[in-house]
Amino acid sequence: MSEAYITRVSKFLPNEGVANEEMEEYLGFINGKSSKSKAIVLRNNKIKNRYYAYTREGQPTHTNAEMAALAVKGLFSENTSEIKEADLLSAGTSSPDQLMPSHGVMIHGWLPETGSIEVVSPSGVCCAGMHALKYAYMSVKLQDKKKAIAVASERFSPSLRAEQFEEEVQELIRLEQNPYVSFDKDFLRWMLSDGAGAFLIEGKPNETGPSLRIDWIEGCSFANEEEACMYQGAHKLEDGTLKSFKDYSNEEIQSKSVFGIKQDVKLLSEKIVRLGFTNLKGILTEKGFDMNDVDYFLPHISSYFFESKIEDVLIENGIPVPKEKWFTNLATKGNVGAASIYMMVEELFASGKLEKGQKVLLAVPESSRFSYMFCLLTVC
């Protein structure tokens, strides 16, 4: 088999960064009032800046597919004609612009210069970007493809805007109940961000700059044991099952804000760290890899609240990582879901800090129904 290398990295962030005090100017005030939970959530997640594909006036500036395409074009900024050599587009997201067609082909629609190539669209939430990377990695390693593009992108902002919840609030008022949306819906409004990241995967390292050899990518799911924790387009019932938007009337979809993104915060806190990062020990043992050899540890976290919890679980399992080896940009980029790990790699790649032979471990937990992806890279 061939080796597979990340030879180029790129990102796209829409518009200017949005500071904490500006957020409701973009997302709006539900029932005309500021959120009660905003300050609490921001204090815990420690995010200072994020990006929205929207103007303050509520006008969309980019689609999800368009942002992904712009990140892909960034891979070929020095030689735009080289994009014609790409033979695979593997695209992951948890916030596609539509249910059909697939997200990948919509991105391809923004890239006419590629010609006719294979396109695949792994679904999921935060792990979707890693699934896209793994498909590209395997395709190159098997020598089925020569220049594979992996891209991950999110456009969460439309689902976070106040008008998505206004009908639910009005229904609560009619029922003479507290006119505030529940915390499981309000929670994510102060964490999520828009943007895209892309990798070029080839069978040989870059001759003019650093590359990252993909040593392995491993994933695991605990959906056979755990109920859904984060969901959209569904409503969680008392027994923990999800009722699809397809089984609600149009009126119920509006009154329950079924298309709002929801998070079972109690379940998240109890499960997200321990399940996946305990399982990491077994993966490292199977791969014969010593955590002491890690030079950079890139964990995708939705909130700095989980940083110490991950550290504790790694220590408990005998695979500690000194904090000076951790690398994250959550505070400056926000939680960009499937694209977050791409943006971390891009920032580290561009930092000038990487040295040949160093090991980079990626860790991506996904709370939707508790899935995890881990990846080991070697700097070449």
Automatic annotation (TrEMBL):
Signal peptide region: none
GO biological process, one term: secondary metabolite biosynthetic process
Keywords linked to the UniProt accession: Acyltransferase, Transferase
Top-rank lineage group of the source organism: Bacteria
Keyword RNA-binding found: no
PANTHER family according to UniProt: 3-OXOACYL-[ACYL-CARRIER-PROTEIN] SYNTHASE 3, BETA-KETOACYL-[ACYL-CARRIER-PROTEIN] SYNTHASE III
Name the record gives this protein: Beta-ketoacyl-[acyl-carrier-protein] synthase III C-terminal domain-containing protein
